[in-house]
From TrEMBL:
It is found in: Cell envelope. GO terms for cellular component: cell envelope. It comes from Terasakiispira papahanaumokuakeensis. This is Uncharacterized protein. Gene3D superfamilies: 2.40.30.170, 2.40.50.100, Helix hairpin bin. The chain crosses the membrane at residues 190-208. Keywords: Coiled coil, Membrane, Transmembrane, Transmembrane helix. PANTHER family: BLL5650 PROTEIN (PTHR32347:SF23), EFFLUX SYSTEM COMPONENT YKNX-RELATED (PTHR32347). The keyword Cell membrane does not apply. The keyword Membrane applies.
Length: 466
């Protein structure tokens, strides 16, 4: 008979083990605690845990992982499946070789000793509490006979294990509702399906690629006025953006050097002409003077050609407008006294009604574009009234911009119906040379998902170098 102190010690140990059992947060942790703590309540050589839903041995004492392919586990699984189908499967009992099928009984002595205690784990179904359900069993293997009468704490241990096991299984079933289990349809699955279908449909929604780029209104096919010779600009005779007529003087070059050269050339011509006349008079009395007449005549003609060239150059020093239009020039005061080279551009004369868009498309925002691609131009001064245009010229080589970035220069022409016919004042004020804004270019159709993730995917490709 056990002493009171020994009984108190056993009860204290049982309470601690039961507390550890109920603190298990998962089925694997619970199985590990069952097979390793059961041996502290009664002497046994080995403890196995068989689960009914898995139909196999899932845990064994002093074993971290059970191999289901070993001969012992395969034989024991067949035995447990047979015992679970018996009428007394939900009752604790001692098992022997006689309680096994004939095909399995012959191997009992090979794998197990004489005494095995079947300790079932049962739980009541939430819908039917009168018919308990077998959810597993503990197999206590020992050389000596183990009974519940000899170890009464095993009954309490069986109840605690059954309760903890059923509670964790219920929690696991509730968590699986969000994991689309099998073919079971629930509100959670339907909600998840609708949300996923909505996201997939939204990402696959067809949209048109668009890109924004800075743009400026400039003249189309303007007349470029260049320096006729190497010299100095004396004065700009017109103001920027002022209208001029054909033949009107717009630039005056410094003619002092040309006038000096012209005066010297005229004196050389006068001398050559006088020498030629004198030789003609001498040739009448002196036949030997006739030999020099041809040389003097060519010298006089050369001097005359020099005079005509310098006179024509002086005339071209006053640059006139080749056509009627608007003057496009930088600050006139910056040009006064400025030395220019031959052919250097000074100003432009543009037609007021011939305009185009100069678009600077950044390299990082480049998309596939084709001629006649539609463009909408939003002026900085009137952002709510876009102007319609279409691409006419594409560049395949980027160029540096004033901001220090690389961009593709594009050209676009305005459509005829840019502004409604009834708004003539807005049409005249909106399309002025030099006005800046933002151009929206429309590319090929694509999917919304690719349109939203195009930039991140491009950065990811550069970062991963593929």
């Amino acid at each position: 008979m056990s002493s009171p102190s020994h009984v108190a010690q056993q009860l204290s140990q049982f309470i601690q083990l039961e507390q550890q059992l109920r603190q298990a947060d998962s089925l694997p942790a619970l199985g590990f605690a069952l097979v390793n703590h059961t041996g502290m309540l009664c002497p046994c050589d080995q403890v196995f845990l068989w689960q009914a839903d898995a139909e196999r041995i899932t845990h064994a004492a002093h074993v971290t992982q059970v191999d289901a392919h070993t001969p012992l586990n395969q034989w024991l699984n067949q035995c447990c499946q047979y015992w679970s189908r018996q009428a007394n499967a939900q009752q604790a009992r001692t098992l022997t070789a006689e309680q096994c099928p004939e095909a399995l009984a012959s191997q009992w002595s090979t794998y197990l000793p004489t005494n095995v205690l079947w300790l079932p784990l049962i739980t009541a179904s939430p819908s039917d509490t009168t018919h308990p359900k077998l959810i597993g069993a503990l197999l206590l293997v020992s050389q000596q006979a183990i009974t519940l009468q000899a170890y009464p704490l095993l009954s309490r241990w069986q109840e605690a294990a059954s309760h903890a096991f059923s509670a964790l299984q219920a929690h696991q079933r509730s968590a699986r509702r969000w994991q689309l289990p099998g073919l079971r349809r629930s509100r959670q699955r339907l909600l998840i399906f609708i949300v996923l279908a909505g996201f997939i449909g939204l990402f696959c929604w067809p949209v048109r690629q668009t890109v924004l780029a800075p743009a400026q209104i400039e003249a189309k096919n303007p007349s470029i006025l260049r320096a006729p010779i190497r010299g100095v600009v004396a004065d700009i005779l017109v103001k920027p953006n002022s209208p001029v007529s054909e033949g009107q003087a717009v630039v005056q070059m410094d003619t002092r050097e040309i006038e000096s050269q012209l005066e010297a050339s005229r004196q050389q011509y006068a001398i050559a002409a006088a020498e030629f006349r004198q030789a003609q008079q001498q040739a009448l009395s002196d036949p030997r003077s006739k030999a020099s007449l041809e040389v003097l005549r060519r010298r006089r003609d050369q001097a005359a050609s020099e005079v005509r060239y310098l006179a024509d150059t002086k005339t071209r020093m006053t640059i006139t407008a080749p056509q009627k239009g608007i003057v496009i020039v930088d600050n006139p005061s910056d040009w006064q006294g400025r030395a220019v080279a031959l052919g250097e551009r000074i100003m432009q004369i543009a037609q007021a009604d011939q305009q185009q868009l100069n678009i600077q498309l950044p390299v990082n925002d480049a998309i596939h574009l084709t001629p006649d691609t539609p463009v909408r131009f939003f002026l900085n001064s009137q952002p709510t009234t876009p102007l319609k245009a279409h691409l006419t010229q594409l560049a395949y080589r980027p160029q540096p911009t004033l901001e220090g970035t690389l961009a593709y220069p594009l050209k676009a022409e305005f459509d005829h119906s840019v502004i409604p016919d009834g708004d003539k004042a807005l049409n005249a004020q909106s399309r002025q040379l030099g006005f800046k804004g933002t151009a929206k270019l429309y590319g090929e159709p694509t999917r919304l998902g690719f349109y939203l993730l195009r930039r991140p995917l491009s950065m990811l490709r550069v970062w991963l170098s593929f």
